Structure formats: structure tokens, C-alpha cells
Amino acid sequence: MPEQTGSVPAPNQDSDAGRLPQAVAVAADEAAAQGMDIPPPADESTEEQSGLGGSLAEPLVTMPPDDREPRPLPQIRVRGRSFMALVLSPEPPLADWVAALDLQISKSAPFFAAKPVILDCGLLQADEHGLDALVPALLDRGIRLIEIEGADPDWPATAGWEWPEGYSGGRAIGAIEIPEEAPPPPPDPSRASLVIDEPVRSGQTVSFPDGDVVVLGSVASGAEVSAGGSVHVYGTLRGRAFAGVGGNNGGRILCRRLHAELIAIGGLYMTAEDLPADRIGQSVQVRLDGERLMLLPLD
Amino acid sequence: MGKVLVVTSGKGGVGKTTSTASLGAALAQENQKVVVVDFDVGLRNLDLVMGAERRVVFDLINVVQGDAKLAQALIRDKRVETLSILPASQTRDKDALTADGVARVIAELRETFDWIVCDSPAGIERGAQLAMHHADEAVVVTNPEVSSVRDSDRIIGLLDSTTAKAKAGEKINKHLLLTRYDAARAARGEMLRVEDVLEILSIPLIGIIPESEEVLRASNLGAPVTLNNPDSAPARAYFDAVRRLRGETVDMNVPTDRKGLFGKLFKWRAA
């Protein structure tokens, strides 16, 4: 999370927020909501950095106040945002509970990903067998704890836990159904690319989220090719091509002749109308340069 | 065992029925036993173009549903002995066609005829799917304009994915028949050029039928153009197409009606 500032915890930002120009403001919003200090925007260098939005590589640096004339400071905009935290209540015996958790995660892998989780130890005793390993086990499974309730850091078993900086309160909203979905089969390395020997006809869709798509013929108007990696078209690309679906911004689109209806990489798209005239009909590679699609000649 | 040939296009009005009648008649004129089958249930036209509309008693639906025997529904052409027509029903719709019934009728026709030429309805829905389902070969009728070409592309995709042969992992032979082609307009850039269409569709070209009044005249007289005026430019183009369909190598040119002036010789045989 590149936009996270040094002093502001921002546990709930999804990575897409990084694309939005107000990303830095979002972090500040949360800090305000939690009653924390907002570093005052002191001079141009700070503002310039915040203008970069998601591409901030370094934490926002608060500059010491200088001795120039005081200027009117900008208004701080504060907006509210709420996230739902999940509450996990382990039951004894803990070994069985962790096994059950693993089974659940295998059925619905993305459910706990990127969600704030509160651990409620109310059902457990201080001398519960295996208690010391509970929090490390949860962290190992990628569960992001934001609060631990019903346990005390003074207990011998819990002293070694990583205690998150606490959130408290909140409104309980009852049990949540965990959607079950089969985990995606692991990508077969021999199929890191999908090769289509024939033209992709109008109305057909070729989708390969695990790697590259190589089309030896043309992609017709009204056809769609999408790839987790890059899209290669050795004929004419007349339809739509989506590279880097699933957020791989390194995906590219390469075609021998460009007459595309739409090209997109990592969600950034360009329609036929926007294609630069001097690239149409040419051998072209398309790649993502920051927030821009770059169309480069291939020859 | 006869061959099933579907004449299809996706788009309407490009000349499927005219081409079905002309190809069917031209095949029969070369002493092949041919039946032309109208799959356009509810919007039948093939009987009109073949001049058989006043002799229809039973139709494809009656046979599919078992209300009539195939022999009762087949109408033998009066001009060419080896040519028959199986008309569609005008009063029913495409839901009356069942997959099993069509399979049975096609199997029965295969035993009697050398060629079963199926006139597909426009569109990509049930009627068109059933018409192409049993095909061994397909003639994709295309006009040299963008919407027709795109629809043809869609149909070629379906031919490669939904037909019985495709599902069995086999390839269906696809041929491109370019109709209503006007060399002068193509030269002026008002139509897609043949190269462009071939480049987009990338299937072998089986014939280029020039735009001609003869086609309309023949249709209105209830005769395929190959029977009505065998020496006309479109008729010659259909005869050439039929020879290519039967595996002969024929130079590709666009016949014209102007005497002594042959169309430009084209080089493409296949895409």
C-alpha cells in the first residue's frame, strides 16, 4: 500500500484506491475519523507529492514549518467511510477449530482476503491448549487481525502474540454466510499460454486468465480475446482485446495489424475512436505506462 | 450416402434462397440427385423461387412430426428430373422443428439423394442451428458489405462449434459464395473488395456471383437462374461454383454479360 502514511494506519484500503487521485485524502479521512493527527500540508513539495495519487512510492513527509509568511491553509475535507469487520470466535478444542477454518478457507479462498477480522476469544480459557499458537496460525493464513477481544496480553499463552493496535466498539450484525466457491485450480505451467490456431470469429470469446493468449489468425469485429497476461494476434485485430485482466499491468497487446474496436490493459481501455490514426493498420504493441496506454510500432 | 450442404449467411436478404435454388438446380443439371430443403419455417420462399408453390401438399413440419411420409412431401421438379424440393410450412414457426425429427428426415434423405441442400433461415437461432446441424459442407453467402461480412463471420464460428460434425471433433467444409458483386462499384471503393472479404473471413472462395437483373427475373418467374437462362453471367458463376464444390479446379473469374469482355481473372482459389 504505497499511499499509506507513516503515522496513519489504513488497514482497509483496497489496492484499487491507489488508482484514484484522492487516494491520499482517503488515508487522511480515516485518520480524521479515528481522531488521529493529520499532518498539516506544509508546502508545495508535499502537495506535489500528494498530487501523484497512487504512484507515491515513499511515505508522505511532513515538512517542518518554515519561517516564510504564513499563508491561508487549505480546508481539510473529511468524509466518513465504514467497513465491515468479521468476528471470528474460536472454540475449544483449538486444533479442530483451526482444521475447520482451513476447510472453510479451501472452499472460499477469497472470503477472508483483505477483510479486517476481529478475534473474539470469549469462548476460550487462559490455559486453553494451543492458545499460544492461535494468532500466529491466523496470521499464517493471511487473516488480518485488527483487534483481539476476550483475551489479555498478561496471560502467559498470549504474551507472544502480535497484538494489533485496537479498535473497539462496533455494532454486531449477526452471523454471516460464507460463500463457498471452489478454489481456482492452480495454473498448469504447461498452459501458461493458450494458442488458437484459427481466426477468432465474430461473437466468439476467448478468455485465459492464467497467461497469454496467442491467436495465429485474425480476431474479427465483434469477437473478444482476454488474457491474464498478454494478447498476441498474428493476424488483424478487429475485435476487442483485453490484456492483464486481474490486474497484471505488465500485460501487453501485440498485433500484426491494428483495427481494434477496443483495447484494454489492466482495466484501462481505449476505443477505436481514440486510437491514434498513425497506428491504425500497423503492427503495434500496446503497453501500459502508468495510467496511459502506449501504442508503439512493432517494426 | 448423400452429402448435406447448408446454405447460410446469418444476415437476411443476401441471397441464401436464390443461391440454394441455383446451386441445387445446377447440381441436378449435372445429373446429381438433389433435394433442396427449406428450413425457413414460417417464412418459406424456396417453393416460390423453385416454381413449386402451387404443388405443395405436405411440408417439412408434417414429415418431422410424423404426419406425412417423406415421399408424400417431396415435390419433384418438372424441368430437371433429378431435382426435388421439400418445402417448409408457412403456417407454423421454427419451434415446430424438433432435433430428433430433423435428424430422422435428414438420415432418410441421405439414402435417396446425392446432395441435400438446406436453405437456412436468417439469424443464428434455433431454425438456423437446426438447418446447419447435420451439414457436411457449408456455403456461406456473403454480400460485399461490412454487416454481411461480420454476420458471416459469426455463422462460420457457429459452424465450427455447434454442428454435429464440430461436436464430433471433425471439420465442416466451409465455402464462401460472394453474391451481388458489382466489379465497377468495388473498383470505385463503394463495396468491399474480394480480397478484403477473403482476408476477414479466411475461408476458401467458391464463387463470385455478379449483381444481375437476371437473378431477379428468374426468381419472379419461379425458376432458378441456372435453369431460366443458363448462359447468363450469374448462371455461369453458379455452374462454376458447383464444379468447385465437386472438387474441380476452375479459374476464378467474375462472369459478365458483356459479350467478348471477360471479367478480370482472379487469382484466389483459397484464402
What's the SSE blueprint?
The complex is a heterodimer of chains A (299) and B (271).
Chain A: H1 23-33, H2 44-50, E1 86-88, H3 94-107, E2 116-120, H4 134-140, E3 144-149, E4 193-196, E5 205-208, E6 212-215, E7 224-227, E8 231-237, E9 240-243, E10 253-258, E11 262-265, E12 268-271, E13 284-289, E14 292-297
Parallel strand pairs in A: 1-2, 2-3, 4-6, 5-7, 6-8, 7-9, 8-10, 9-11
Antiparallel strand pairs in A: 10-13, 11-12, 13-14
Chain B: E1 3-8, H1 16-29, E2 34-38, H2 46-49, H3 60-64, H4 70-73, E3 75-76, E4 83-86, H5 99-112, E5 115-119, H6 126-133, E6 137-142, H7 146-159, H8 164-167, E7 173-181, H9 183-187, H10 194-201, E8 205-210, H11 213-220, H12 225-228, H13 233-245, E9 252-253, E10 265-266
Parallel strand pairs in B: 1-5, 1-6, 2-4, 2-5, 6-7, 7-8
Antiparallel strand pairs in B: 3-4, 9-10
Helix pairs in contact in B: 1-13
Which short descriptors sum up this protein?
heterodimer, A: 299 residues, alpha/beta, Alpha-Beta Plaits, 3 domains, six-stranded mixed beta sheet, five-stranded mixed beta sheet, 4 helices, 13% helix, elongated, disordered N terminus, B: alpha/beta
Q: What is the structure about, briefly put?
A:
The complex is a heterodimer of chains A (299) and B (271). Chain A has 299 residues and is an alpha/beta fold. Chain A has helices at 23-33, 44-50, 94-107, 134-140; strands spanning 86-88, 116-120, 144-149, 193-196, 205-208, 212-215, 224-227, 231-237, 240-243, 253-258, 262-265, 268-271, 284-289, 292-297.
